[in-house]
Write a structure and sequence with these properties.
This protein is α/β, with parallel strands linked by helices. It is built from 16 helices and 18 strands. The longest helix is centred in the last third of the chain and has 18 residues, at about 385-400.
Amino acid sequence: MQKILVLGAGLVARPLVQYLLDKGYEVICASRTVAKAEALIGGHARGHAHALDLADEARLAEFIAAADLAISLVPPPLHPVVARHCLATNKPMVTTSYVSPEMAALDGEARAKGLVIINEIGVDPGIDHMSAMRIIDDVKRRGGKIAAFKSYCGGLPAPQHNDNPFGYKFSWAPRGVLMASRNGAQYLQDGRKVVVEPARLFRDMHILQVPGFGDFEAYPNRDSISYQDVYGLAGIATLYRGTLRNMGWCDCLYNYRRQGLLELEPLEVGGRTYAQLMRDHLDAAAGEDLRAAFARKAGLPVDSLPAWNLHWLGMFSDRKIRGEQTTMLDAMGDLMFEKLAYKPGELDLIVLFHDFQAVFPDGHQERITSHLIDFGQPGGDSAMSRTVSLPAAIAAHMLLRGEITETGVLRPVVPGIYNPVLDELASLNIACREHTETY
């Protein structure tokens, strides 16, 4: 019986673990908190839960050596650590995270050893890549060329459970979302390279209408230009990858970044309240209303959404801050984790939307759109956990069956990977719907 090591037991891992158990694998789930691993296994006879701190690399190496394949669902900076141990023991690896420079540097060694390290096989990145490449390759097969491509994805609360002023709930720890809010971005627009500085990320926003489903705020997601090579789109005029949020998110995050609420400088806060922290941070006068002080400093009306949302969150309250030391980002993240968490029974939503402009030698053009709308299952898994973890589980199954022949540090952008993964996802009711307009 083949053994699969799953590292991490976070909010998205359950569908992956259950899929692999259903396929007949022995699954070893290792997490810093063993109770979380035990919950994923659910008492299954072929499942095993263990406590593991990845800082203990000797023990990590033992776990990897004893498995036939490793799936890393730990924080992204730890993936290269796992990958190096996989290379040392000649074991394939799967992860849903972006290919980091440290991971890309392992490509040569992986190829030399004939090993596979598949990255970016979740939803975004993941299903977005695979569904896009199916369309891109079809256009090329028909003799056409992609002139413009915009891709958007967002994880949001289902409309009936969108009940807070941020219009957002966290499918994983807020720190990752807030850290991503500090990123810059770049993309191509009509042949022009657009570079977005981190401080302007949420000002480079536009409204996207997903036909039949509503309007969303869209802002650029990291480095879109690098996908020119990944997707085989040399010479494309417009290439844009964006993140979707409900209305109001971008204005809040822009102003929070501008007012220093996403900073990572360590702060001594033992015994202090949020109100005391913010009074000092805003240089507010004694007795001054803190919502008014924030609005004054930000140059906003006192009843603006960014100011009101901080009040609603509890950033001006007499609640004590957790711990002896924190950062402004983590202090706000702690409150967000409580107030923007999904309650039992609440459902989430994944929205994925592609928009292609294709030109053909006979002069005709096509606008091809593709969308995926997936809701969490009542009483079951979230849409985020299904769409993130099931592609990785399917890829792991393919690897152990010898169905992936490419080697090295890979993304799922070749037909031998994306076609079977997308077909299997469709059998699990996760499928993109395409529409073509010809003119």
